[in-house]
């Protein structure tokens, strides 16, 4: 059973009674595997989702329970073309489902989430549980159906263990976005424990091992070297993202 089953159940309860619209991705051709949005300036965007002044959050979970009927996509709030051009509250809740979805699969999904979601016309920025997006006029016309089709296709290609994805978009409903933001923050300790367990299974205790170099207390010098390389890549990515944000 998933460590996050309780959180999945609470998410469904939070959505009960709310007016939702089902979005169909049938027949929509997904964007290229490595297709990215590139830079979309705020003034050029048709929709600005989340910002420094309004909440934007992602709430990522997994469950070992199957989802009858396969992938499900729902929208709470206006369509992209019905939104004002100024930033609006925004959230994405995504639950990976299936008996073969492990903590390792979930961890990898969380790590790759931004790249899986970022696509032509839909520029994504993330920081922990924060989520912001800018949508080009062309992509806004295609709607979140097209965004979802690409996102789901990439998930299934990267993680064949995922039987289905339960995907919820929230646009403009600030109260609900803040509720999901609080839920994501409350679940962060559990997700950190999942991360610790994944790395422990790999033979690395990220809470106690020294990233500066091999400390000599274990025989796994190769693991230490790999971690140092990963840390350097993460720092470089953060510098690049910071430089990119500075130009916006």
TrEMBL record:
Q: Which domain of life is it from?
A: Bacteria
Q: What is this protein called?
A: CO-methylating acetyl-CoA synthase
């Amino acid at each position: 059973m998933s460590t996050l089953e309780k959180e999945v159940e609470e998410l469904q309860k939070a959505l009960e009674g709310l007016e939702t619209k089902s979005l169909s991705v049938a027949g929509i051709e997904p964007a290229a595997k490595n297709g990215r949005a590139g830079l979309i300036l705020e003034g050029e965007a048709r929709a600005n989702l989340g910002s420094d002044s309004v909440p934007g959050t992602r709430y990522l979970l997994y469950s070992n329970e199957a989802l009858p009927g396969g992938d499900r996509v729902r929208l709470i709030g206006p369509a992209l073309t019905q939104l004002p051009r100024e930033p609006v509250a925004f959230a994405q809740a995504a639950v990976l489902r299936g008996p073969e979805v492990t903590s390792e699969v979930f961890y990898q999904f969380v790590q790759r989430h931004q790249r899986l979601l970022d696509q032509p016309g839909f520029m994504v920025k993330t920081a922990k549980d924060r989520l912001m997006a800018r949508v080009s006029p062309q992509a806004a016309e295609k709607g979140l159906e097209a965004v979802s089709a690409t996102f789901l296709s990439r998930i299934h290609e990267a993680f064949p263990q995922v039987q289905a994805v339960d995907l919820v978009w929230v646009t403009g409903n600030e109260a609900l976005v803040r509720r999901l933001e609080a839920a994501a923050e409350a679940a962060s300790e559990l997700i950190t424990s999942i991360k610790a367990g994944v790395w422990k299974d790999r033979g690395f205790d990220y809470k106690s091992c020294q990233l500066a170099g091999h400390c000599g207390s274990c025989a796994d010098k190769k693991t230490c070297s790999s971690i140092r390389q990963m840390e350097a890549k993460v720092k470089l990515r953060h510098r690049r993202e910071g430089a990119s944000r500075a130009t916006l």
